[in-house]
Amino acid sequence: MSIAAIRPGLPLATINPVAKIAATVPLSIVLVLTLDAVSAAVAIACELVLFTAVGLGRLLWSRRTLPVWIAAPLTGISMVLYGAPSGAVLWDFGVIHVTEGSVQIGIATTLRVIAIALPAVVIFLTIDPTDLADGLAQTLRLPARFVLGALAALRLVGSSIDDWRTLSLARRARGIADHGVIRRGLGQAFALLVLAIRRGSTLATAMESRGFGAPGARTWARVAHFGGREWVVIAVGCLVAAISAAAAVATGSWNVIWA
Amino acid sequence: MTTRDASSPGAASVVARGWGWRHGGRRLPAVQGLDLEIRPGERVLLLGASGSGKSTLLHGMAGVLGGDDEGEVLGELLVDGRPAAAARGRSGLVLQDPDAQVVMARLGDDVAFGLENLGVARQEIWPRVRAALDAVGLDLPLDHATAELSGGQRQRLALAGVLAMRPGLILLDEPTANLDPSGVREVRDAVVRVADETGATLVVIEHRVSTWLPSVDRIVVLGAGGGLLADGAPEPVLAARAAELRAAGVWLPDEVPWRAPARDVSAGRPLLTTEGLDVARVPGSPVLRGVDVTVDAGGILAVTGPNGAGKSTLALTLAGLLHPEGGRIEPSDELARGLRGEPWRWRSRDLLTRIGTVFQSPEHQFLTGSVRAELEVGPRALKLPADERARRVDELLAVLRLERLAEANPFTLSGGEKRRLSVASALATRPRMLVLDEPTFGQDATTWRELARLIVDLRDDGVGVVAVTHDDVFVDAIADRRLEVGAVALPSGGGAR
Amino acid sequence: MHATTASSASTARTGERRLRWRVVDIVVASVIGVAVGVVFWAWGVVWGPISAPIEALLPGLQAAPAAVWLIAGVLGGLIIRKPGAAIYTELVAAVVSALIGSQWGGLLTIEAGLVQGLGAELVFAIFLYRNWRLPVALLAGAGAGLAMAINDLILWYAGAAPTFAIVYTISAVVGGAVIAGGLSWLAVRGLARAGALDRFAAGRELRTV
Hints:
Radius of gyration of chain C: 18 Å
Largest sheet of chain B: 6 strands, mixed
Structural class of chain C: mainly alpha
CATH architecture of the largest domain in chain B: 3-Layer(aba) Sandwich
Shape of chain C: globular
Number of domains of chain B: 2
Strand content of chain C: under 5%
Low-confidence stretches of chain B: 1-8, 488-497
Structural class of chain B: alpha/beta
Oligomer: heterotrimer
Number of strands of chain C: 0
Shape of chain B: globular
Strand order of the largest sheet of chain B: 6-7-8-3-9-10
CATH class of the largest domain in chain B: Alpha Beta
Number of strands of chain B: 19
Mean pLDDT of chain B: 87
Strand content of chain B: 15-25%
Order of helices and strands of chain C: HHHHHHHH
Number of domains of chain C: 1
CATH topology of the largest domain in chain B: Rossmann fold
Number of helices of chain C: 8
CATH superfamily of the largest domain in chain B: P-loop containing nucleotide triphosphate hydrolases
Radius of gyration of chain B: 25 Å
Mean pLDDT of chain C: 83
Largest sheet of chain C: none
């Protein structure tokens, strides 16, 4: 796991992260508004095609997208078992009512989770945190102090991971590692928090001593550009959203969630 | 980087008149009634006992102490005639912890950070970044990952970040305390080079005087509660105040705080023997191979070697905390006392009475909210009866002079106190063997002396001590035997001698 | 700021609350958010595979352990004690989760963080950012839990039966109160005693040396 910086050769890496995130917005909205299998399936198809075409095909099945592939069917199963009942009853057990309707909902939910989450996860894997900070501060003009403060805090993750490993070893050395995993885990998490916050306070002092947070305008050493390529990416996002919505409406399966 | 352009008006002066500062959460001020004047271009070494307010003064000069809601200020502290907080950018501060000063993921971005904050135009930023990196001797590409830098390199990076801002005042708060000897030299040389080239005023806090003595022209000593104790040229001050400085934990040049009395080093009974041991942090990539070493009861074994050679990994493996990658570790019957198998297989509770470990950073070992409870953790895990626990704890509190602090939270202790506590808690369960990882790291001379004495006393009691250290003075003063591990892999035997 | 009079302390002691965020506020809030984001990911890696099948079968109780993620907002609010602290900290935790790769996908993870942080923030706001004691912490956790439940039920469990929805909501609120509210409050006390919060009011309250 590296949230430090991504490999520069990755496709889409140089596109402004703001554009990449913006590209996922129309599709998320469309898919959230409806609960049906057609729009989700069409969206997934478009996504697979596009990502493979751009060269990100490998990421679709990586360790980082695994949570999506696991969570989707599980959410679907929840719905199959506990979804709003309608149609013929297939199985009844206590509070569980498996019906034709709930099975449909389950399938639609599974596809929907994949359709919304997959592109977002893959796209985020191409986002370098520093570029994201630049995009948020320069393109969206969010307050620079907050954006950069958060970026700096990200630096401390590496030290915290090292700390966690050493903390585990220390607990073994102090004689308490034989049992009580949860209590030990909580204690370790607390110790980690103490160390991280102290390091954060020192980092804050170091940043202040380099002029951070002082009054006066700041300049940017790196440019966050927003040009043709960014608009293309956003347009593609809108297109996929439109196609999915159109397919659902055309086949009559558009099903607004509050209906 | 040899010219100072018109935008930087040269070295800064510092004037303190009756200055004092009280942190918000404390009753007593850290510094009070300080009158001090530092002329532009001077190089000052700031000394004093811990608690004398050196760091506070330095942070005050950098203007980062905080506003009215964080504490109370008395008198005035002016940099170039203006209050310090308004003069940010005129001064640069380098702190002790190499990990807590890196702001950005890439080298060049980190150095450019200060320039961005000061509003320097983009076309000027990158040339200054490159110049600053050259000045500190960091000859790496601008997109090099900061996470992959060593401690010494990170401190030089922090210095470069400060330098790029072209400050008139360079402030260094124990910049080399957390570094190994080669890191110390790198950073010291970089600072001196920078000071020579820019002519900036320099104020350094460090307790090892010999590191900086040749490069400073004035020594200022602060007293407890924050007034001036001494101020003047280096040699006279050191000569006149030697006793006080020694008591304050300062390392006077060419002095060893303590040396163990010479004795017959006869081979003791072996406690642990290794044969062809390979050690690794990450399974599959060994950092040391083929180590053959024996740990004897009643002896001190020092493990030395360059940074990254795997000394710590070896220590943790000997202590039974890490899984060896290959080879064998054989505990003697005296050590194992009925247990079978290698130490890493033993239960955590069984390790307590056999092998104790003291980690490089004491804070990783703290489990509780008070010193007393901390010392009780081991005895409690052994299920000792309450009166036995109390006896052991009281004994340790007395021996390590921690009585006053029995109810204090371990994280709030000073550096030396934390170190003593971490050693004490390992001793509470009376292990036959003790492994210490860099015990003198970042410690002042007083704590150093205490640790040395303590370890020698343990040895005389029959405990087998393994100390991983890059402190050659420590090795010379107390070690009986020495194992040098190299970073270069030798054909068959890994560099163990 | 460096007045030449000795009475500048009076402004500090009369309790004039500075609402502007200092650099240390921003960085520490970010550190908390980052830490919780990472811990939540690690928790998911360890706990997820074990519990996922179980959770799928339980009617709605899976909301309770998910409350771990809500800790960021409440903890941030209790330590920084300035308007926006809960939202900001929760948002940072969400962004970190998204960068590592959460199962909900980047944008909606961030949106969830925003909504959850808002849940806690509203509670702190109701108490006018003056009360930071245990009951308020528990309520803030409950608020964040409620927000999480509403968010998830609308977006992810849109076709759920009423029973599921009710159980989910209740587990989220209770889990939020206990885990996010209670644990955070305990953590703040521990952190203050350990001296980690000396630059904050939360620390100085509990520890005057």
